[in-house]
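Let us work through a complete example step by step.
Step 1: write down the sequence.
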Amino acid sequence: MSIGVSIVEDDVPVREILANWISGAPGFRCVSTYGNADAAAARLPKDTPDVVLMDINLAGHSGIQCVRHLKLLMPKTQFLMITVYEDADHIFDALAAGANGYLLKDTPREELLAAIKDVHEGGSPMTSYVARKVVAAFRRPDQGKAAPEVLAPREWEVLRLLARGFAYKEIADSLKISRATVNTYITRIYEKLHVHSRGEAVARYTSFPSNREPVALRSGA
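Step 2: predict the structure and record it as tokens.
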């Protein structure tokens, strides 16, 4: 049985190239293509693809927000990010939102098809450079590593939502606080955990003992 793939990509030439690669490969079929997150969020649940190739930089809502929304509606679908962003923040935000793999847009055709097959079979394919970033995040020295108990209850709530891929405004709305207050909490969290970015904070969050919260960097989290 062929693997059904949907594509969410706002760059028309790139979207067409990806669709042609998939349609022309034995064992794959292109189910649908979308140019923005809103259309994808509305229609993908009815398309029921096996795998979704998702860009991050989309008009309106980002691809990461789209994945977080769709993962709840399509728990059996695998989401594979394909993007130009290779920084730690985007990588960890995408994984925390529920993405199952992360590729850069310069990935060759055969590697992309292999990654789609891999993620469909339960793997978590990543471009080698991205994989090194993830590994490096978990190899940071433990010196100065803070335990969850050093965070105040509200700081812990903010960190938990951050690790689940929430945008700052969404955190503010969820906790019924202002955006400025969210920024203050995040500054304190960074200081207490000795980190300098959202990606580092999420990586540190996943290293805490799981006696209070489940690890967020997990499929379907």
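Step 3: interpret the result. Confidence is low (pLDDT under 50) at residues 142-147, 210-221.
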